[in-house]
Write a structure and sequence with these properties.
The structure is a single chain. The chain is built from 4 helices and 5 strands. By secondary structure, it is α+β, with helices and mostly antiparallel strands. It has a 5-stranded antiparallel beta sheet with strand order 4-3-2-1-5. A hairpin with a 2-residue loop joins strand 2 and strand 3. Helix 1 packs antiparallel against helix 4 and helix 2 packs antiparallel against helix 3. The longest helix is centred in the middle third of the chain and has 32 residues. The chain starts with a helix and ends with a helix.
């Protein structure tokens, strides 16, 4: 059913990953210029130009934001929901690895400049929080499947 607790968990995971698309993942201060790591590129704040493209991370984040919404509407097939949730976990691990990779790569690509400060933002942790939500959703889906099975045995 769509009004179960796992729907809330899946929606929160989709919301967190959607927010990761629009908010900076990390910020770098180089001399007087500030760069921010977004889902689709390392951008200069002043000129709003992309310094380094991170299109692959952006694609993984978008897929990780859409898959929980698809999973919510597959409520008639619980095993399909579990498979989608496991796929979502893989996407979230990939999104976390990409975020850390591009944050480190961003530092290395601008190391020749005078790097003053690195600031990791809260969206860097969104994939981790989403993993917890997906795990809780899997537990709820499996619990519902067991409940339906037990009710079928009673009849």
């Amino acid at each position: 059913m769509i009004q179960r607790i796992q729907t809330v968990y899946l929606f929160v995971a989709a919301l967190l990953m959607s927010l990761m698309i629009f908010f900076p993942i990390a910020k770098f201060l180089i001399g007087g210029e500030e760069l921010r790591l977004m889902a689709f590129g390392l951008q200069s704040v002043d000129t709003d130009t992309v310094v380094v493209s991170t299109i692959y991370m952006g694609i993984v984040i978008v897929l990780a934001a859409l898959l929980p919404l698809v999973t919510i509407f597959c409520y008639k097939s619980r095993m399909t929901q579990v498979r989608f949730c496991l796929t979502e976990l893989v996407l979230l691990v990939g999104a976390q690895i990409f975020a850390v990779f591009y944050a480190v790569r961003g530092v290395r690509s601008i190391e020749t400049f005078d790097l003053n400060a690195i600031s990791v933002q809260l969206p860097m942790l969104f994939p981790f929080f989403s993993m917890i939500m997906i795990y809780l959703a899997i537990r709820g889906i499996v619990r519902d499947a067991k409940l339906v099975k037990s009710l079928d045995r009673i009849r």
